[in-house]
Records
---
Amino acid sequence: MEKMPKWADVVLIPLISLLLAAGLSALVILAIGEDPTAAVKLMVDGALGSSYGWGYTLYYATNFMFTGLAVAVAAHAGLFNIGGEGQAMLGGLGVALICLFIPWPHWTLALLFATLGAGLFGAAWAAIPAYLQAKRGSHIVITTIMFNFIAAAVLNYVLVNVLKPPSSMDPASARFSDTIHLPTLHELLTPLGIAFSKSAPANVSLLVAIAACLAVWLLIWRTPLGFEIRAFGKSEAGARYAGISPVKITIITMMISGALAGMMAINNVMGEAERLVLNATEGAGFIGIAVALMGRNHPFGVFLAAILFGFLYQGGAELALWTNIPRELIVVIQALVILFTGALDNMVRIPLERIFLALRKESN
Amino acid sequence: MTLMKSLMGAAATLALTAGAALAEPALIFDLGGKFDKSFNEAAFGGAQRWAEETGGSFREIELQSEAQREQALRRFAEAGANPIVTMGFAMADPLSSVAPDYPDTKFVVIDVTWLDVPNIRQVGFAEHEGSYLVGMMAAMASKTDTVGFVGGMDVPLIRHFGCGYAQGVKAVNPDATVIANMTGTTPAAWNDPVKGSELTKAQISQGADVIYAAAGGTGVGVLQTAADENILSIGVDSNQNHLHPGKVLTSMLKRVDIAVYDAMIAGEAVEPGVFSMGLAEDGVGYALDENNADLVTDEMKAAVDAARQKIIDGEIEVVSYYTDNSCPALKF
């Protein structure tokens, strides 16, 4: 028997966690002498009050959908992929190489191959820890987190020594050509008669992300591979008994997970910056963990949680722009939200389960 | 509903910034952070001076990551901030894509001189000339005939500093050794005092007894370690003599504060174009105050002031690293 109703698990726990995080953040803002209600208004207005704000919120949400799905797919196989950050960085490298060195005639073709390239690079980066886990028993949490650092170093080296144009001082690649500029939401919605801010970066990759949500749902719940992944995640011994190869499932799941994380790069590298810069991922790989946890590893949950975190990110950026709250404290506030919604799930869950059990006893 | 929202937004903005008017200037700090005691803090100082003198207020943001540059620029431009003052060469590319979208907004950028956009004021400094002067002082103060240079990020701009410095050292003492190290190859090198401290120790073990830090926030570690190890250091950009009185020989002043102040005073009417600030314009120089008065001998001061005049008059030519991306006095 379930300890508490489904709706409480899906809605109540995230909501309470969020309120707790918001309460603590308010205390932090109060402590440095700013007004928390004004700060909240500023965040809401800046992230959702205009099509410009929505454009940024959805841009960040696109990143988080990809990385959230990456974590969710791995989680179904009982694997904890903390390496989304590194896989997304390598995905960015794949996108940059494809966009810089092949003269694409049209953006659609470029987007297709950039998506494949990003997925391939991300999958390859995840395959190494997956192999080490499957064949050598090196714990995936440790190896994937280590691979984030290696990825940062690789990118650093490639940008400084290979991709940086000789005349430039900034460690960033050259700009991609204008022909492969991805249409922004402004360009997509104007023909439909909807006015959308011109300068917001949300672009066509949002649709790719939504398609990815759908594809992941199909994969996990409608294919034999998805069944094997879930069976393996529930019980490795059971899966082995049913003839499912743990090595194969570990490697394939991690490669799918890495590919999803890598595909984030079509949004931030190809869609927004249109060049590869250092730290292009802006921590989206880690946010993906919180997004997947909050979305209960379901693609629709990931979709909603990604939009919530997109709002928090954009709202945080607005706080940095319009208040005197120092950047360190904005990181603290964002970290509080991640901590509560991601890591401290059980802190809310266990008391809540007790309450529901007590209520049930009374009604019996 | 929309009206309500914009009212709420306006109220929130008002509450948080205490009566800000439109078209106020904005200042975007580079990754070293606002309080790096150096480059960015100099800009903040200039903006503060403007705010105090005019009673105006300005917007500001400290960037958290490379990817934020374009968003910060667009947001300020959308909100009507004018002029928008930005710090550092890494703003060049974001500016070249954002500035044309907002032709009525004036942008100012420090350390960039190569963009071809009509509404940007680009201010470059003759850092090699100022570094030449502090290089002369380093050579005169050194007892071991070995001096050090700790750069931040390994980019032509910082080599430009190091090159001028080495030329100054060699002008006084052709046999002196200049040890040069860079902190890193990414913007993280602007804010890594621990690495700065390690490099300083390494240079001391090689005999350096005067070390020049041109490394933004990383320089704080260089100056600290130099003071702890009882050798002399040279600060950069802002006057850093006060950080360790009696231990900092001088500071190579790069008057970013003046560039920012001038831009803000001019306001929306700020003149676009490329501007250079050298010794003649007092854009660069060396710092002399009560904290280093005992360290700078009369002989030193006379020699440096004479050299300053000669550089202005064109009698001494300090070779710029930019000319052919190499340095006659120092190998990197």
Note: The longest strand of chain B covers residues 146-153.
---
Amino acid sequence: MHQFGFIAIFMVLAVLVPVSMLLIPYALTLAGIKPHRPDKVKNDTYECGVRTVGGSWVRFNFRYYYFALSFLIFDVEAVFLFPWAVHARQLHWFGFGAVLVFVAIITVGLAYEWRKKALEWK
Amino acid sequence: MAVSALATGCQPPGFFDGQNLWHEWVVNFFPRIGDSICRGMGGHADGGPPNWLIYLVLGFLGSLIVVNIAALGVPFVVLLERKLLGRFQNRIGPNRVGPFGLLQPVADALKLMTKEDITPAAADKIVFALAPLAFAIPIILMFAPIPWADHASLANLDIGILWVIAVTTAAEAGIFMAGWSSNNKYSLFGAMRAVALLVSYEIPLVLSLLGVVLLAGTLNLSEIVLDQRFAPNILWQPLGFFVFIIAVSAELNRAPFDQLEAESELVSGFHTEYSGMKWAMVQLGEYAALIGFSAIIATLFLSGWKGPLWIPGYIWLVTKMAFILCAFIWVRATIPRMRIDQIMAFGWKFLLPLSIINIFATAAEVIAFPDALPYWLIPINIAFAGACVVGMAKLLGFQPKTRKIVIPGRPVIGDDTPGRIVPLMRGGN
């Protein structure tokens, strides 16, 4: 477990370094080296140089809905497969057969999805 | 005992074969540093500082080295990419600042630091400021379990692979935060595409890793390297390598899968509104992920720090990483960007079945030869991988299409007459 202590120290440093990198420009602004002159046009949302029409926090048709559902299923499958992969030698052909059946059930689902054209980006 | 922090901690005397020779220092550079810090603090003597203090100092110094590999490696990878892209496009690339343009990263850093930071008035300011951090921090964390040489990973995690996958996936939240908080339509599209890409390519990525896990029987990255003492995993796992490297380039949002930044249509997607140091942070995350994943690919498939000659392990690892980086850049310069529907179809209909086939082929091999795989399996594996890729492509009806361009009075471009090559760009076709 003491390896995770190193991870904890690393996490502190991994947070501190980017945060301090973002603080450098702030300090440079205070020192007057970096300009800070916001105006209305500059702070406008970029849209090819024309004035922005409407916001973007609207109801949005995200098309990967079915993909996200299948992603959940396959990700859970992968979580189950990792312990088997570590011990595949000891579990021998019985484990192989069990996992084959498990994956086959999910793959049939994938084939059904494919057949029903749920894997098309519409 | 698995001790780490780029070091072995205070190893008992005699852990390293040989004496305090200089070449032994070079080979075991990282463990030696940790060892001498430990000894210098009096780790073995009675009445020395308490163990937790040594632990903290070792962890801190090791973390400092690894953070710097990530943060200082990035500008030079950017320079390498610009140089190589220049060469690929028949240009010279950056060559003005310093000898051969080597000081370009320094100039870039200075420019980005002194550039005005613009936050759009319509943006969600807090999320907008936090997003680059949420993107860069997990990417830096991914470097923790990578073994740089023998006994030289920051944390010798037993779940090293899972840690890398978990942490790099968390970075996707940063991309979505950036895209959503900008309140810009391009950024929102980019963020949506990023999530679509993530859900499609995470599965082949994870499943193609399973082949390596099956071979090694462990999730520990150092032990996976040690397991490749006979031959690198790419020879046993050609299909897994093929799927993994494609899935990684999609996870890294690199060409040909960079639909979420797509300069020509989304104006760099989720970081359209970013400028100055926040933009640099996004860039840091992207290129640090590139470095980290090339280290992971080298570790998992190209036998990591192990090499045939008497050369220090970290030099082997960096050499292999450089090859993989150049391959990624080559791919970026060569292959045009795919459409988003093509990308999704490619992930789900091509890579996912291939990775499932790979798992069971590898599992059958491993169970049939539990001690060590025989060498005659290598050509069989490579032939099997080639047959799978070609067969799957035929099954799905992927065909290399040639398009004829006929202009009256000019030679025909793209006709399939054998032995006739019509240059496209030169001579004004």
Note: The CA atoms of residues 15 and 122 of chain A lie 40 Å apart.
